[in-house]
Amino acid sequence: MISLDRLNEVDRPEFVALLGEIYEHSPWVAEAAFQRRPFATRDALRDVMNDVVSQADPERQLALLRAHPELAGRAAIRGELTTHSADEQGASGLLNCSPEELKRIQELNQAYGEKFKFPFVIAVKGMDRSAIIASLEKRLGNPREEEKLEALRQVSRIAGFRLEASIGS
């Protein structure tokens, strides 16, 4: 865990190295947030990073969504998740699915990806497999633009949890 004071003092490369994976495979968010230092609170940092994403052009937002791995997907099975994603999916039980659960999640992931052209993104903290599956089933019924906004809200929640775990208040 790094202190907010230290984060406010480091140079750009170290800042990006420390926060570059808060948004999955998207260090551009930390890069842009660096310019708005110093941050008085962890919440202020979170808000700035969220602003960076919300002000990004639609293609960059879509790239951010596409940077997220499928839940219990190929990357998880091969052990290729980022540390953050592995911890999050593991804590929710997604890395220990029964064969039936895994088959259902993979079917839903495929249907979701075909419909929306980005992977299902949800902040899994505090959720179990059945709640995640139910949410995926429900959100499959959303219109594309509504779902893109919901996925971006979930990315924001994930980033908030990651900042909470990484940055001292």
From TrEMBL:
Pathway(s) where this gene product acts: Purine metabolism; urate degradation; (S)-allantoin from urate: step 3/3
Start and end residues of each Oxo-4-hydroxy-4-carboxy-5-ureidoimidazoline decarboxylase domain: 8-164
Keywords annotated in UniProt: Decarboxylase, Lyase, Purine metabolism
GO biological process: allantoin metabolic process; purine nucleobase metabolic process; urate catabolic process
Coiled-coil ranges (or none): none
Enzyme class: lyase
NCBIfam families: UHCUDC (TIGR03164)
Record-given protein name: 2-oxo-4-hydroxy-4-carboxy-5-ureidoimidazoline decarboxylase
Organism for this UniProt entry: Methylobacterium radiodurans
Lineage: Bacteria, Pseudomonadati, Pseudomonadota, Alphaproteobacteria, Hyphomicrobiales
Gene name of the record: uraD
